[in-house]
Design goal:
By secondary structure, the protein is an all-alpha fold. It has a single domain, classed as Farnesyl Diphosphate Synthase, CATH 1.10.600.10. The protein contains 13 helices and 2 strands. Strands 1-2 form a two-stranded antiparallel ribbon. A hairpin with a 2-residue loop joins strand 1 and strand 2. The protein starts with 8 loop residues before the first helix and ends in a 6-residue tail after the last helix.
């Protein structure tokens, strides 16, 4: 990216951008654009906006989580410090807002600001969850939809708005459910040691996730000991490997349930738009989310 800076800020940010990532959100936005017959050039600015907004959220998350690596690359806060990382994230968001304002699509710009508000609200809710004495699945779903689903929702509704598609509620539903799948998949990955990070970081940091919550549901006798681990009163995991694997499989089945639901909705939209050949592409995108945890099954 370019910008009028006297510091090395844009150089540092370009290094982060070049470090890669799956670019799932821009890919989804372009796919939704194809569903509604939009051209690639009509969507480029919006695709860049969502990817840079996502990157800004990751930079801020790394500060919150005190992470020193992401995608096997050092995080900005570890290379520099928390202050510069926060400033970099703020700069990214300001750049996105400025570029979108030039598109003169205020409703879409407002939608993105609401997504960013949801990101912050979801992060806040997740932090508060650390002190909650009884976590339920509705807590995790609310956080997943806000933290992960909000930007993906924007990827689905933006092309629809640009094309004049009326049923924006269905498009929002698709995005939020994809976000839910993303979060459940990440929670499975949290228990895998082959990712380069220590396993079970969520509960060590005081957070229950979909897998540990399912573990308690399947094995109520583990309730007290799991919460002791969550509160830092013990450092030893109380479950057996086979118990944890059963919880992973149960969450995997829930992901498949959500996947079937959104595939059905997406197929209906594609049929109405005479774009049914795009359904396998969408299916593949969702399946790739699941591939992140395939080694755990």
């Amino acid at each position: 990216m370019t910008g009028r800076t006297s510091s090395a800020l844009t150089t540092e940010l370009n290094a982060l951008i070049e470090a890669g990532g799956k670019k799932f959100r821009p890919g989804l936005l372009f796919l939704m654009g194809k569903v509604f017959g939009l051209k690639h050039d009509e969507l480029t600015t919006y695709a860049r906006a969502v990817e840079l907004t996502h990157l800004a959220s990751l930079v801020h998350d790394d500060v919150i989580d005190a992470s020193d690596k992401r995608r096997n690359h050092p995080t900005l806060n570890s290379v520099r410090n928390n202050t510069t990382a926060i400033l970099a994230g703020d700069y990214l968001l300001a750049s996105v807002m400025g570029e979108l304002a030039l598109m003169q699509k205020n409703d879409i710009l407002i939608d993105l600001t609401r997504s960013i508000q949801d990101l912050a609200d979801g992060e806040w809710l997740q932090f508060d969850l650390k002190s909650k004495t009884h976590v339920v699945v509705e807590d995790l779903e609310a956080i997943a939809i806000k933290k992960t689903g909000s930007l993906i929702r924007w990827c689905c509704t933006t092309p629809a708005k640009l094309a004049g598609y009326a049923d924006l509620g269905t498009m929002a539903f698709l995005g939020e459910r994809i976000g839910l799948i993303f979060q459940m998949a990440d929670d499975i990955v949290d228990g895998i040691t082959t990712t380069g990070k220590p396993a079970f970081q969520d509960i060590i940091n005081g957070q229950l996730n979909y897998v540990t919550l399912k573990l308690i549901e399947l094995h109520p006798e583990l309730y007290a000991s799991v919460y002791d681990l969550k509160k830092g009163q013990t450092q030893k995991v109380p479950w057996k490997d086979e118990q944890y694997q059963a919880a992973i499989r149960a969450v995997h089945e829930e992901i498949n349930f959500q996947k079937d639901k959104i595939l059905s909705v997406f197929s209906g939209i594609c049929k109405a738009q005479d774009q049914e050949d795009l359904v396998p592409v969408f299916d593949l995108m969702i399946t790739k989310i699941q591939s992140n945890y395939a080694s755990a099954l």
